[in-house]
């Protein structure tokens, strides 16, 4: 019953949205005889100006100004009269529009609802949608549920922990930073929460590491000296502050012995090279170019460097397709193709690796993990 009342109210509102402007238009139209009288008055005033000029009661300049103003009013009155006559001529079309609004619009709305809608479905107020099973909800509704809960229970630290990374994924770094700050205040300090707080503050500040972000990263390192994320952002901050030598040292310390397959390594190497630093020895095996190649690459133009990298990736691709290789090498190829933007080639490498290690559950698990990490397949 409530549904049909709402439909009736919406139909009435739609009809009124058409009828009211039409009614106002007709009510505001002045009568044609009024416009004719106005025109007559202005013509008479023009004649009086001419008589006054002939008798020397006004000078020519004043007469010209008076004629101009009276002529403007006369033209305006004439235009209003023309509009009034046009409106009278369209009286029948206005009545037709009113009939359509009153009779046809409700019938059209009802038919459209019966065709596209679901009349038998019970009402689903916001409260009901927010209490439905989580797997049936959109991200926005789930966030709204958590926000509602936190508004009622602001001291629930775990709730802030849950919603903070979601805010980051939704592109809301300010809210993410506040959520991490609340979690730390309520549950105590953790190196990953402090690092994530600093990252959110940096993203919210258009990539500039400000004082608050720096302090968060420093607290994270105090809790975990080997943590990668805070050391990465602090090295970035040094470069932003123009402390080139300190930034080079920070990047070299971060890259020393690092696994070159890590997602952050390429960005760190690029930042170090821009500052003129030398890339240190990284982990064995899958680094790709050796130190001499890296040094040569740092002296190249960007186009030449890109060409060299693509050549190395193509060589690895050809070797693995011809001779095969380890699961780690296939993972390296997948990552390299993703970095280069070759999504189809990355997926092809993933499929070939799966075929090569069919029956080897451990290798397949490693390959699948790498594919999920690089975004080639979706996480479960």
Rg (CA only): 38 Å
* Structural classification: mainly alpha
What string, H for helix and E for strand, traces the elements in order?
HHHHHHHHHHHHHHHHHH
Which assembly state applies to the chains in this document?
A: single chain
Helical coverage, percent range: over 70%
Number of helices: 18
User: What's the mean pLDDT score?
Assistant: 75
Poorly predicted runs of 5 or more residues:
25-31, 126-130
Strand content: under 5%
**Strand tally:** 0
Shape field: elongated
Largest sheet features: none
Distance between the termini: 43 Å
Describe this structure in words.
It is built from 18 helices and no strands. The chain is elongated. By secondary structure, the protein is an all-alpha fold. It has helices at residues 2-27, 32-54, 60-89, 91-116, 126-130, 139-152, 157-169, 173-187, 191-204, 211-223, 228-240, 244-255, 265-274, 291-298, 302-323, 327-339, 343-356, 361-373. It is found in: Cell envelope. Residues 131-256 form the Cytochrome c-type biogenesis protein H TPR domain. The chain crosses the membrane at residues 97-116. This is Cytochrome c-type biogenesis protein CcmH.
Short description:
Keywords: Cytochrome c-type biogenesis, Membrane, Repeat, TPR repeat, Transmembrane, Transmembrane helix. The protein has 380 residues and is mostly helical. It contains 18 helices and no strands.
């Amino acid at each position: 019953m409530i549904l049909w009342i709402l439909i009736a109210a919406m139909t009435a509102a739609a009809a009124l949205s058409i009828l009211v402007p039409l009614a106002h238009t007709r009510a505001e139209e002045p009568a044609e005889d009024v416009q004719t009288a106005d025109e007559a008055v202005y013509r008479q005033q023009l004649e009086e100006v001419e008589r006054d000029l002939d008798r020397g009661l006004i000078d020519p300049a004043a007469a010209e100004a008076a004629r101009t103003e009276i002529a403007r009013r006369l033209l305006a009155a004439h235009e209003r009269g023309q509009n009034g006559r046009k409106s009278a001529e369209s009286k029948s079309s206005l009545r037709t529009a009113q009939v359509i609004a009153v009779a046809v619009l409700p019938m059209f709305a009802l038919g459209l609802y019966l065709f596209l809608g679901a009349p038998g479905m019970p009402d689903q107020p916001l409260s009901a949608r927010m209490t439905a099973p989580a797997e049936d909800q959109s991200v926005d509704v789930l966030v709204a549920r958590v926000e509602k809960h936190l508004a009622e229970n602001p001291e629930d630290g775990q709730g802030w922990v849950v919603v903070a990374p979601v805010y980051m994924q939704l592109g809301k770094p300010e809210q993410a930073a506040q959520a991490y700050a609340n979690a730390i205040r309520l549950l105590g300090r953790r190196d990953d929460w402090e690092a994530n707080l600093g990252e959110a503050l940096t993203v919210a500040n258009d990539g500039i590491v400000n004082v608050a972000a720096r302090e968060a990263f420093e607290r994270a390192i105090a809790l975990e000296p080997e943590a990668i994320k805070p050391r990465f952002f602090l090295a970035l901050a040094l470069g932003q502050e123009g402390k080139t030598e300190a930034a080079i040292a920070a990047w070299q310390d971060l890259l020393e012995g690092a696994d070159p397959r890590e997602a952050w390594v390429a960005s760190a190497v690029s930042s170090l090279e821009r500052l003129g630093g030398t890339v240190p020895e990284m982990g064995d095996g899958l680094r790709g170019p050796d130190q001499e190649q890296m040094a040569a690459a740092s002296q190249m133009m960007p186009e030449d460097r890109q060409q060299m990298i693509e050549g190395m990736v193509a060589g690895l691709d050809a070797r693995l397709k011809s001779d095969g290789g380890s699961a780690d090498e296939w993972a390296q190829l997948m990552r390299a193709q993703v970095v280069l933007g070759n999504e189809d080639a990355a997926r092809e490498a993933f499929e070939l690796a799966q075929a090569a290690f069919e029956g080897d559950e451990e290798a397949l698990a490693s390959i699948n993990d790498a594919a999920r990490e690089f975004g080639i397949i979706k996480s479960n």
